[in-house]
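Chapter summary example.
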Amino acid sequence: MIRHALVLCLFFTPAMAEVPAPAPVPVPPADDGWSMMEEGAKLLFEGLMTQIDPAIDGMGQALSELEPALRDMQPVLRDLVAMLGDIRAYHAPVKLPNGDILIRRRSPAEMGPQPGSEIEL
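The structure predicted for these 121 residues follows.
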């Protein structure tokens, strides 16, 4: 009986040993990951552009509506810039409790060395 069991084991052993190997897993090309990253970035930027386009169009329309008012203010703004000169010559504006706004001019000592002036060593 033991011989029969041994013969049966030896008979089925080759059948069990011949189990087909699993199919090899295909190896993606080395740059496949980069192409997926590029595709993801492309989709991201396309999504951003579809969201930003309406905002840019609205801003352009608002600026075109403001253009006449800005043209009317242009001479006044030129006079103001000519009167103030260099903006760095002033301290930051201060609002007083009564609503007045003070814009103090900096003293020459606060201004520091002027461009073009020589410093003695």
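To summarize the output: The two ends are 115 Å apart (CA to CA).
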